[in-house]
Here is the input.
Amino acid sequence: MTDSKYSIMLFRCDLRLMDNAALFSANDFGEILPVYIHEPSENITHDWSIGGASQWWLHHSLQHLNEQLTSVSQPLAYFKTTPHKAISSILINLCEKNGCTRIFWNRRYEPHHIEHDKALKMELKKHDIEVHSFNNNLLSEPWHQFTKQGTPFKVFTPYWRHCKNRFATDLPVPIPLSKPDFRTPKKTWHIEDGLSLQELELLPSNPDWSKSINVQWQAGEQSAQQKWEEFQESSINHYDEARNIPSISGTSLLSPHLAFGEISTRQIWHDATQLQMHNHTRTDDLNRYLSEIGWREFSYYQLFHFPDLPKNNFNPRFDKFHWDTNNDLLKAWQQGKTGYPLVDAGMRELWQTGYMHNRVRMVVASFLCKDLLIHWQEGAKWFWDTLLDADLASNSASWQWCAGCGADASPFFRIFNPITQSEKFDAAGIYLRKWLPELAKLSNKHIHKPWEAPIEALEQAGIVLGKTYPYPIVDHKLARLEALDRYKDLKTLES
Ligand SMILES: Cc1cc2nc3c(=O)[nH]c(=O)nc-3n(C[C@H](O)[C@H](O)[C@H](O)COP(=O)(O)OP(=O)(O)OC[C@H]3O[C@@H](n4cnc5c(N)ncnc54)[C@H](O)[C@@H]3O)c2cc1C
Here is the structure.
């Protein structure tokens, strides 16, 4: 095929126009066709097809991206793979019909995506189609950062110390509005076999559980930018302290936007650095926020260097750990019916909104792994399906951290006490009352442990334990001792 002035921009985990390196560069070569190709789970060979909550987000994010593209350039063309039509054949067909010789995309870092993209690149090359790929999801390529010994970092603090001055050295790129081929496209594209967004079938139908999520969230780049603006103007100034309080808006709530690439961490990094230079924000708050972005980066770094992270214990000692299989306990945890109010409030927040506060994520994860002694992978799977921000790197790394088997993990013997965590971080029970209305009338003293409330207090609050709210499914003190015993067993097995 001869060189042409037509290219394809393949959107994947970068559903934005601002600071989109592949999109920006593609427009240097002439006109582009923006494309999104959905791979339904039945056509996927790996275990990590997109979860239910994320599919909902994806639908709305694509809708928003298409509206933006239509208003400034060329609408998004949608396709879907079938058992007989792989991504490569869709792209080759599009290139042939439209005379395109180049495809632009931003890189993905999940092991199955890396493999897939390598094979795709080779296949396209066979058809004389060039691929131009860019880093647009991370602050630094994971293969650029190593310890002095040339090995990958395993501990966050030295990684962070090493990287923070090396991150995001390039400036974010603007929306390519200055490029005439983007602003005034002329070509009529042959996309007769393209689909509508509805035909991608991303929305839940029977039952439609998305109503409460709809109220709370707005997907898309515009909403991401607005949230980031608002956060810089207000909450970032108290972040260091406020980020631990689940009842207030103390965090940026950007995670689903970041998971779908609706805003880049490079932009966040540069904006935050500007704030710091102009002394607009307390250093402690800003550094803490940037270090959380650093944890996201470190999660991707771990996933790249240890591709088995979603499947295997990072610390192989834990391969011999004796986990329990108990579907009743797992179900009680998933449904927010453990009898421990902070755990239940978190799990119900997750079910109803597709989100859970980070402090509560740590508590519910510790409870599953250490009180119920259920394998961290069961929790990771549930989160994968129910979180709007489900992200293979952060989810796998965080679950392993909580279970004690991850890189730089919280030690196994650090077992969160769901009662004291509740008393400390939600002393007035505001978060508990929001998600557990059946406990709303209990006093602040008793709401964290209703089973210890006097019978009159329960009666006055309209609570019948075992009926309107469950008794604790395990005794935390005994469960903790059992977990520590199992941990000791590991040492015995090793000696
Ligand atoms: C068991 C468990 C599972 C998790 N699964 C996910 C997941 O699938 N996807 C996900 O994005 N986050 C996950 N997290 C990390 C964290 O809980 C969320 O990123 C955070 O709650 C999102 O809220 P926010 O955007 O308001 O965060 P902010 O506090 O405003 O932080 C800003 C950004 O930094 C990143 N970040 C913050 N904390 C972490 C962290 N501990 N690890 C990695 N990145 C972090 C996120 O991208 C976040 O949006 C998990 C944490 C735990 C304990």
